[in-house]
Amino acid sequence: MTSIPQEKLNRLLDRWNAIQDELNHGVPQAVFAKLNKEFSDLTPVVGKIQSLRKAEAEIADLDVMIADPGADKEMIDMAYAERATLVPAIEALEHDVRIALLPKDAADEKSAILEVRAGTGGDEAALFAADLFRMYQRYADIHGWKTEIISMSESDLGGYKEIVASVTGSGVFARLKFESGVHRVQRIPATESGGRIHTSAATVAVLPEAEDVDIDIRPEDVRIDTMRASGAGGQHVNKTDSAVRMLHIPTGIIVVSAEKSQHQNRRLAMAVLKSKLYEMQRDKLANERSDARKAQVGSGDRSQRIRTYNFPQGRVTDHRINLTLYNLDEVLTGNALDQLIDALITDHQAGLLAEMTAA
Hints:
Blueprint: H1 6-25, H2 29-67, H3 73-101, E1 112-118, H4 122-142, E2 146-154, E3 160-168, H5 172-176, E4 181-187, E5 198-208, E6 222-227, E7 243-248, E8 253-257, H6 262-289, E9 305-310, E10 315-318, E11 323-325, H7 328-332, H8 337-358
Parallel strand pairs: 4-9
Antiparallel strand pairs: 1-3, 1-5, 2-3, 4-5, 6-7, 7-8, 9-10, 10-11
């Protein structure tokens, strides 16, 4: 692996010190928020760099002691022993610094729009879609995120043909973006009298929630219609025209929000529309940079079968990294989902490190 460019580390340290000095001496309120965020973003990286350099200085001092012809043998033996513990520690710190220096996805800190849709498998697919949504809802609760349902279409058996929700919090997209794709389930449906295992699927899409500064939508490019919200079987949930259908004329994107408040529906529908347009921009830029990135983990290719949930064997397999866990129940409660997501993030980082090394 190539050595870490010290000039880059020096620039980061200098920038961190300069921002700290500015903040300590007072800056205009308009500048404070921006500088404070940059300082917060740099602080973890700077901490790792400082720890690495401290360890490197310690090992250099030990090498001087070991090379001293007049040094006491017992002191030299102690220096060798301490050096032996420092070498792996420095390797680990170097790895941490390299990870910290990887290019960041600008959308990682954003909230997200989560869409879960039943795929092949009829009612069983809709029930599985409901299981997946509950998994993400519980996972969001564990992380202290807020989930707000935007629209849903229920099946006759209580599953979801489609459900769209916003997940609000810090770093939501960074963790959920790896969930986009086709999720497959193998189990005996409740409606199966013969005990046969069925295979069905649901698709998950995770979009970074766009902010006003990300997307500018002209009022004349949007047509908004109101209609009555419907529940399972097409029955009217209420008697007022509260549901909102939003059409973005230039792209043809249609968004529907069907909660009880028309004002809330307009806000939620606009949030989804902005996120879809923002994702289109991101996809366009990614395709322009490299078609090869489509094959990478987290590329957002929603036609890719990414994971299988096998109920008879109690296992979950993520096909992108060939990882199998035998704690299906814990995954579906959201408690063990981080085991999969952490592994996917590590694999993604390893790919980026390999690219940097090759370059």
